[in-house]
Amino acid sequence: MKSRFLMCPPDYFDVEYNINPWMTDNLGRVDSERAKSQWHNLFETLSKYAEIELLEPQLHLPDMVFTANAGLVKGNSFIPSRFQYPERQPEEAHFREWFLSNGYYLVDLASPVSFEGEGDALLQPNNDLLWMGYGFRTDPQTRELIKVLFPQCIALQLVDPRFYHLDTCFCLLPGGQIMYFPQAFSQESRQTIEAHFAIEDRIEIDAEDGLYFACNTVVVENNLILNHASPALIHRLESLGYKAILTPVDEFLKAGGGTKCLVLCL
Questions:
Q1: Which domains does the chain have, with CATH numbers?
Q2: Active site (annotated) includes residue 40
Q3: Which of the following is catalytic: 8, 169, 171, 261?
């Protein structure tokens, strides 16, 4: 069965406020036509490997295009996000409505903690283990609340505000490898990663790739769709049997998002 993803067209995408370091110098600097072209290129590329559902964009919600933050899906259950910043909180009702109207059962977190969906919660392929990031957008207490659907959950602390979501610096690959930017994590969390992945399965990327969100990759089987990758990283990935597909989305990087931020796994 084909993978399925949720995307939202960038009709109203722009940098209209400042809630992460990427936005600071990019207020009002998005090239809308270029952003739409890049988004459609990603849509067409991903459509070759997966089915895509579309969410209707909403005026005055420029970050709604980053559907990865809508929540977290398991089977026909959906855990809706609770955005930390007021600027994004109006998105929640639209995400909830889409999932309800498409037959999903909503599982709300039992306590009012912040949780930003698949941006901070990634399921290990071929495994029931969930990796959860905290430190900037998702509350660490979410780990206990989310165990209703994901009994096995490991929390990692993010310490670099440029990598404010787990999916900006951490990518689980279907062959059992991990691609990550070590400097984004606390020392204890780096030790946790090292304890779970053998050294030959750890792809530690450098700043050149990390700052272009190479870890923010859409994974469909052995196909890796990413904004940027250095020749050395491409060679490493291809040597492991993966196909690296470069699909630039640098207009969205102005708001702190890459390819993975633009899709939610269904």
A1: 3-265 (3.75.10.10)
A2: no
A3: 261
